[in-house]
Amino acid sequence: MSEKTYKPGNYPDLPPPPGTVGVYGWIRQNLFSSISNSLLTIISVVLLYYLIDGIIGWFFLDAVFDADSKIACRKIDDGACWAVITRRVGQFVYGFYPEAERWRIDITFLTMFIAFAPLLYPDIPKRKWLLYFSVFYPFFAFVLIMGGYFGLQKIEYSLFGGFMLTVILGVCGIVCSLPLGILLALGRQSNLTVVRTLSVCFIEFMRGVPLITLLFVASSMLNYFLPPGTNFSILVRVIIMFTFFSAAYIAEVIRGGIQAIPKGQYEAADALGMNYWQKTRFITLPQALKISIPGIVNTFIGLYKDTTLVVVIGLLDPLGIGRAALADTKWNGLSTETYLFVALFFFVSCFAMSRYSLWLENKLNTDKK
Amino acid sequence: MKTKMLLAGVTAGVMFAGSVLASTLDDVRARGKLNCIINTGLAGFAAPDDKGNWTGFDVDFCRAVAAATLGDADKVNYTTATGKTRFTKLAAGEGELLSRNTTWTFSRDVDLSQTFIGVNYYDGQGFMVPKALGVKSAKGLDGASVCIQTGTTTELNLAEFFAGNNIKYNPVPIETNAEAQELYKAGRCDVYTTDASGLYATMMSFDNPSDHMVLPEIVSKEPLGPVVRHGDDQWADIVAWVLRAMMAGEEKGITSKNVKELAAKDNKDKEINRLLGKDPLQGLSKLGLSPDWAVNVISQVGNYQESFEKHLFPLTIKRGMNALYRDGGLHYIPPIK
């Protein structure tokens, strides 16, 4: 029995007892701390094994990635038949846009990132020059996608579909509804009775009517008001409806932000002699928008997913393309694969939006740090 | 007096404007394309293939009209419509032809101001059961649980049929066709009922279609046909006679393979000669069609039988009511004289 002695204050840190740290310690503490917990762990592992084994088997190991039809798929293996996706990936992405012209969509889509970069990331180098492009971009995209100018073949809107349609509807709706929503929010707070009443009416009407009803109005009612033969494309009508609908929600979200600003801020602005627009531009909006970011992004994600509703008026978004694929006798019955693929697409885009909003919140959250 | 004059002037102006409006045929010819309204996807009737080309029984009819009027079956713009939007799309002029398995009913014909030009598919509500159930007739379904889409005419038809035959049943209300498929596959209901063509399409989506069968009873009338707007009789006639030409093709044995050959020679059957433009067909110029219109239709799309067999036989749909009258079906077309 030889116990080492140390001078006071020089006692070294001894390693923790074995079995309490590291992987082993973690497992023991969290998974096998008692008999019942150990049992639960073992049962869960077994269940997980079967579950994961089944899932991986169905998704990958037993899956068929290329075949001519569902029957051909089943002959090869009994897992997922991804052939319905791989054979139709062009349709899922571009709808019925002519194959020879699809480069136009590719370019529009890629340049969209350049156009959005200076808006989304304020620190980007050469931002000023890029902003010019952003302003010019909508015209560029319109001409490129629709055609009919500069020797580009004109493309009928009825050929639009798939992810391209979702992105067009989503991006146009989002980009147009934010400024409109801000104006409506300001209008609702305005001292001018007419402006305030109009804003309130618009917001309450749009929020009080289901989106699907507005889409039916876009697809059916508007036709009756227009002379027959006018080709006021349904795409434009639907985008307008989406914009109005989402703007009403955005307006309320931003109003929440505006009302959260302490009264002292306005009084300080008044004391400095700022006029209404200066106050709005430098005091109200920067703070209100910052507060409203989660709500705004929430609305945008909702809008983006709501674009699938266009199926009910006969536009073929990814879901519609998927259903049409299922109506092909070759692929009839592969609904799980189709819907999973569409779900994956929506998850990826919505998750990206949500991550961006988190990043932006952290960046702007200067006062709470 | 002045207002009366003004009114008369306006009326005259409107009438004049109406009379100078181009006919549907002229619109289609000027555009060089037929705008055809079709289903967003229904097995056998309209669905895009892997290349993105629409195919199907209803799509074939669009192609046939394009072949007759423009000489090229590929000159069609397809506009997809759901059950709710199809009539407004037609009324708004988004298409000249609605070829979307549309049931011909009184109110749709009269109230919605459109013209049903004929029937290209006789459908009706049927019952699908697993063969293991051992039922051979719908009358043997006493006490069965039936999957039924709520809020449709099928619900009413079902109630009437079972009440009329004094048998009890257990309705399992569902919202969509997809949901019904799952419930039926899971054995939650013994019977699934909807339009027979839909039953066959559903059956084909199963892993073992041969384990199921459609019972012989058809309990409702669903005559499906192409639709055009009221008000342009020339166009309605064109569309109607394109359908009849396809059926005449089957009746006279004219197929996409032999139509060119038959058109070139003098046939004993003068009706073939008139149809294929060898002999003059009185009044054809009033339709504004060229003498080879039927040749274009049958050579590019095929006759009724070819179209039916190509798109609906894979779904194991039999001719049944959709055979020609001489084969025991309902298709009986006026003579081409």
Summarize the structure.
The complex is a heterodimer of chains A (369) and B (337). Chain A is mainly alpha-helical. Chain A has 15 helices and no strands.
Structural overview:
The complex is a heterodimer of chains A (369) and B (337). Chain A is mostly helical and 369 residues long. Chain A folds into two domains: 22-61, no CATH class; 85-97 and 155-364, MetI-like (MetI-like fold). Chain A contains 15 helices and no strands. In chain A, α14 (318-327) runs antiparallel to α15. The mean pLDDT of chain A is 87. With 337 residues, chain B is an alpha/beta fold. Chain B folds into two domains: 17-122 and 223-327, D-Maltodextrin-Binding Protein, domain 2 (3-Layer(aba) Sandwich); 125-220, D-Maltodextrin-Binding Protein, domain 2 (3-Layer(aba) Sandwich). Chain B is built from 14 helices and 13 strands. Chain B has helices spanning 2-20, 24-31, 57-70, 86-91, 106-110, 153-164, 177-185, 196-204, 233-251, 259-264, 270-275, 284-287, 293-300, 304-311; strands at 34-39, 47-48, 54-55, 76-81, 97-103, 114-116, 121-123, 125-130, 144-149, 169-174, 191-195, 212-214, 222-229. In chain B, the strands form three sheets. In chain B, strands 1, 4, 5, 6, 7 and 13 form a six-stranded mixed sheet that branches. Chain B has a five-stranded mixed sheet with strand order 10-9-11-8-12. Mean pLDDT of chain B is 87; it is low at 5-20. The chains are: A mainly alpha (369), B alpha/beta (337). Chains A and B meet through α10 and α14 of A and β2, β4 and α4 of B.
User: Structural class of the helices, strands and pairings of chain B?
Assistant: alpha/beta
| Terminus-to-terminus distance of chain B | 53 Å
Strand content of chain B: 15-25%
Number of domains of chain B: 2
| Largest interface between protein chains, with number of residues from each side | A-B, 37 and 36 residues
CATH superfamily of the largest domain in chain B: Periplasmic binding protein-like II
By CATH, the architecture of the largest domain in chain B is named 3-Layer(aba) Sandwich
Structural class of chain A: mainly alpha
At the fold tier of CATH, the topology name of the largest domain in chain A is MetI-like fold
Based on Cα principal axes, name the global outline of chain B. Answer: globular
Which H/E pattern describes the elements of chain A?
Answer: HHHHHHHHHHHHHHH
